[in-house]
Here is the input.
Amino acid sequence: MIAIAASWKQNLGIITDLVSDEFRVFLAGRKDRSRWDVARLGWYADYDDPASFLEVFSKDNSQNDPGYMSSEFNNLIDASRVEPNPDKRILLLQRSEEVLLGDYPIIPVYFYTARRLVKPYLGGAEITPLNHTYSKHLYWKDAS
Here is the structure.
């Protein structure tokens, strides 16, 4: 955030005050928009589906901290919830993402990544889309 604030000052002339709250304090005050104009937020998927990221910005979602409101976005999200055809559903979600990013209620700055150091003789250490490695899938590879 320090690098972003410096970039905003240098390139845009925007002077920022950075506030680092204890997490409990942040959670208690994050809905109070008088406290901030911009906030750094993170989100991990609850389940392996693009809707886990997109539904956060729907009209009734308690996690919609930016207060994003778009009838087009909400209509697309609502339609995706009841669409039985998986291909059509994904198209609805893709279109809702285009609307969201076109409106700029958020600025994706970075994406979480994970690395695992695994001995070459250990198999089954794949990372799931939700960033988990399950020990029940681990096994010793055949030494031959």
About this structure: The helical segments are 2-12, 23-29, 51-54, 71-82, 86-103. The chain has three domains: 1-40, 44-112, 116-144. The chain has a mean pLDDT of 90. Residues 44-112 form one domain.
